[in-house]
Amino acid sequence: MAFPQPRPQAPQLPQHLWRTVDCQQGAVRAVRFNADGNYLLTCGSDKSLKLWSVSRGTLLKTYSGHGYEVLDADGSYDNSQLCSCSSDKTVILWDVASGQVTRKLRGHAGKVNCVQFNEEATVMLSGSIDGTVRCWDTRSRRMEPIQILDESQDGISSLKVSEHELLTGSVDGRVRRYDLRMGQLQVDYIGSPITCVCFSRDGQCTLSSSLDSTVRLLDKSTGEMLGEYSGHVNKGYKLDCCLTDKDTHVLSCSEDGHVYYWDLVEGSLTLKLPVGKAVVQSLSFHPTEPRLLTSMEGRVQVWGAEPEDAAENES
Amino acid sequence: MASDEDSDEDFVTYGTPLEPLEEDEPSRKPIPVHEQTVKDEKGRYKRFHGAFTGGFSAGYFNTVGSKEGWTPSTFVSSRQQKSEKHNARPEDFMDEEDFGEHGIAPREITTTDEFASERKDQIKDKARAVSSLAALIPGDPGLLEEFIAPARSSIGVELLRKMGWKDGQGVGPRLKRKPRKQNTGRVYGCSLPRNGSEESEEDDDEFAPENVTFAPKDVVPVDFTPKVDSHGLGYRGLNPLQALGGGSGSGHINLFTLQSDRTTNLFGDRASGQERRGGIAGQAFGVGAMEEEDGDIYHKDSMSNYDNVLGGEEPGDGLYGWTAPQQYTKKKNALKRVMAYSGRILDGFALASEVTEIKTVYPPPDLPRDFRPVHYFRPVIDPSTVSPIVAQALQLSRGQLSQDASQQGRHKLDSTQRRDMLGESALQGPSSVFELLESKDRERLTEIRKAAESQKPSESNLSSAVDRAVVVASAKAKAAALQALSSRFQSSSTQPQPPSETQMALNAWSGPTADASKTFKPFSKNPQKQARYDLYISKLKQGDKDAVELSLDSSMTEWERGREREEFVRAALLYKPSSSSLSSRFTHGKHEEDTDTVDVAQEQENDVDDKQAAVKMKMFGKLTRDTFEWHPDKLLCKRFNIPDPYPGSSMVGMPKVKRDKYSVFNFLTIPDGSQVNPSDPKPSSSTIPRVTAEASSKKSRWDVPVQASEPKDAVSAFLSETRSEVSATQQTEAEVKTQTDALPASATSEVKVAQSVEKQSDQKNEEEEEEEEEEVRPSMDLFKAIFASSSDEKSSSSSEDEAEEEEELAPPTSEAAQSTTTSGTVIPPIPAQFTPAPDINKAMDLKHLTVQSVPSAETTAQSTQSSLNAPAKSQGLDEEEFGPRLPPPGFVPSTHSPQMKKQKKKDKEKHKGKKHKKEKKKKKSKKHKHKGKQKKRHEESDSSSDDTDSNSEDVDRDVPTSELLQRLKNLKNKR
């Protein structure tokens, strides 16, 4: 290249609390950014799904229609639709603006742990405790799933979708990657029940946290372990992990009320962000900026890389 | 017609049949047009392009480009590799479906020339006809060719010749002379007068020899040439050559093919010797002008001319013109006289030519009255290894035996005595049965000795102790002898059955838990085998020790028996009564699609043990990765904007293969020789089959990372009579009796049930039972009692919080538990509360109890075995969830209260408290009480303050039904 690469900035870690949102919906089972990171979704244990503005912390809409606590949610790329799953074994596709249920999909035999849109929001994929992943068509009116992936021998705890891949983490201690393009299923044995899986942003690695209090970074193509991150506590609860927006750090919730930041390459603990006293249950990293959402009990906290005033001044 | 239903299946059908219409079914929505698709046999969508533009398959299945069709082939020819001349055949330009059944060039399995019959090849004939036009000799194309071509006969003819067939003969077994037929031929319609040749046959009878056989007559196969003309039956029309050219000498034109191919084929033999009258003859035509006779014009047709039986007798006399010499006939007559038989011979039967010899049957030898088919080896016990009491007792008993041994013959002597009598030297091998015993059993015997020694019974007690020891020792020896017996009978090809398994099976089934009617039938495919298995099970239930041996079929070979023995024991273990209680909850499906096979993933995962090892060494990569073929749904690919990785395949998901469904060997793995090693010093590893090891590893990832599966106490797994008699009675029973006197009798009996279940519970059982717990969940009370008691008696603080919770939930029972938990007994005392119906004799109650006691026994066994496992286990019990749990919901701001915070803190403390080890039990229980009361108050306040709080799921789970009821009442009162 003609021009030298710009010097990489020192990675900024969201460690300043911007605001705390008391969601008033019981325990927040999951908190998720939407596709562009301006809004956030909270899944409450009081059967409601709520949409908030990140910047102001105001409630925009409440989506009620589930029969039991909501366990996961996702927003479509165009912000027109939401999907959520619940302990009532259903997956619901919502219309964002009207707050109406577009489709309520039954079929899972147990509570549905995780749900994701695919890239074009044409398919919803939901993983359930019954050990299946079901692929629901959002385009047609069919109430049956397009395909049922029942390879797992135990419940699916987490699931992520990329352009052509589907990553599932199961309680049977295996991370499965369904490659649609290759028509392959790759199973990586971790051993301990998986609580959360992620793709790295470059799509070359998979991150999986398991109940042995370890987060592992595996090479996608070979299955070799690139990094192992431990120090946090994750022994019994289904906790989230993720990568930062630039893949520089690995984040994980912990049962001791902290969010742990590890350097991705060195594997060393960079930061131990105290969130509260209870279990940090869910977290979500902003897709482009160093911003973090954490949920603990009934509250959601928004974290930024610098104090909020400074950030606002900049922008 | 009844046969219609059967023949239905033979029909070839096309298309999908309409589903049977059911009356009460709600009318279904009609399938919209856009979902009505046409698919070909491979599941590809068909698009209709118009009848003249390709039909359904224009292009290469509606795509441009194909495997071969459109891509230009490249011509490469080098010095090394000359390009082959490629002749394009018409098939190269055909689609796959053109070769199909309805295509233009259907491919079907045809016989090759060599095996083909001599039927004329129509295509070849045509080709020949075409080529004949251009041939050298016009009109006869293949003449020269046929001169030159080697004579070739088909393989069938060759084979027949090898078997002794000659040209002109018929095919089939050689025949004796047949009894003469009365009516040699049937005539349809116009009958022809008989000729002389037939009459001459009448006196052939006496010339027929007895021992000469004839080849059957050759029958020209029926040639069903279709009738294509519009003439009447049998009418040929004028052959102009014959009519005009005067081909035939008779000058008579025969319009009827009475001797046409058809008739000759059918009645070839009849017409063979006959010279038929020419001319048009018959009723309908009267007498021709040229005929001389005109007698039989007004012929009357009679019914006897018609045949009213299908099939009928075979015409022909079977003599074939051979005249037998005179002596044959005489001999035959003589024979006939010998075999004169007074009675009537039934149709279809013939008199035997030879009288069968009567075989003399020798009766089996009489068995002596005291004969027993099973041999027990007399124990030879080394006095140094056994306690003096046992040795003494044995010597005593042997002394008695040896006294009368001299009178009773060698069968009463043992091998050493016989050896001594014969003056032989001792064998080199193991000299005593004790060395054949497993180490565990030896240990147990030493245990007995220790127990006996420690007791140091008084002189008066001694005799009874000796008696008991004798009983025990003899039972022991019997068992050992049985083992030796079974191992002896097993051929070398089968592994020696681990004796513990039969023992386990016995333990599993001999208890009162067994329910005969609801057992699983693993061999239902093979009714005889199943019957044998049922016999085995019923014997097991009676506590028969050699149930396997007795129930096996003695007519089978030894190898088969060994195999079946192994199967039965394993099946008995697998489908033991506890799981049958589970299965009784379900009914069998009325409708099974395919009972024989089950779909199994084609590619199987690698060994999990290897992976675990790899994970331990952090060697992720090849070792931990499995790659499978996986077929995404077509629609899924479409939605993901991705080309189908397997175009043309209609499969979805993982490739499956069919496997046998109910073969036991699908579920069982025969233990390797390395695993079943009787001389293995480790007590547990030798006895637990491989399946269980895997199962336990599966279990360990169930909810919480449990410590690596510890070797369980083997003693609990195998409970021999020794233990129940000696150790149970001596150690526990006395204590139990003194302390649980207050308990009603039913409770103790239940304890016994629980114990018996505990005995059989090895690791595998535990897993099964754990699964079962999800289904058959006993009342919360039972858990409470057990946890309260077991945790206390183990005095391990690890299960403290569970006990806390339980006590907080049921304060009334905790006291009862306390009163009983001061003991250090192995058997958990169960408060009287849990036996609702004291009448235990009722079968229903018994069943109920056993179902309940299964998990309890299991948990107690666990808690006694490893205190480390206890928290994880009981957590799993408390939680109905699978997999990682959800964190507690914390507190909703509206119900903010300091009390709740306090509870939160305590929760934390509890978590920390897990790491503590031992604590004083009494102190703890006091604390529990206190805490329990406090918490109860909290909960009540919680429920009263926030009625609509739905997130108290975790709390709700642990609340017993009684308290729920109470809460409900409170609610009602408020309203």
UniProtKB/TrEMBL annotation, chain B:
Stretches the record annotates as Disordered: 1-32, 72-120, 169-207, 582-607, 670-711, 726-975
Lineage top rank: taxon: Eukaryota
GO BP term (any one): mRNA processing
Biased composition (Basic residues): 174-183, 899-936
InterPro entries: DUF1604, G_patch_dom
Gene Ontology CC entries for this record: nucleus
Domain G-patch: 152-172
GO molecular function, one term: RNA binding
Biased composition (Acidic residues): 1-11, 198-207, 594-607, 765-775, 799-809, 942-956
Bias kind Polar residues: ranges: 672-689, 726-749
Amino acid composition bias (Low complexity), ranges on this chain: 856-867
Bias-annotated ranges (Basic and acidic residues): 81-92
Record-stated family: Belongs to the GPATCH1 family.
Entry-linked PANTHER family: G PATCH DOMAIN-CONTAINING PROTEIN 1
Protein name as catalogued: G patch domain-containing 1
Species, as recorded: Danio rerio (Zebrafish)
Gene: gpatch1
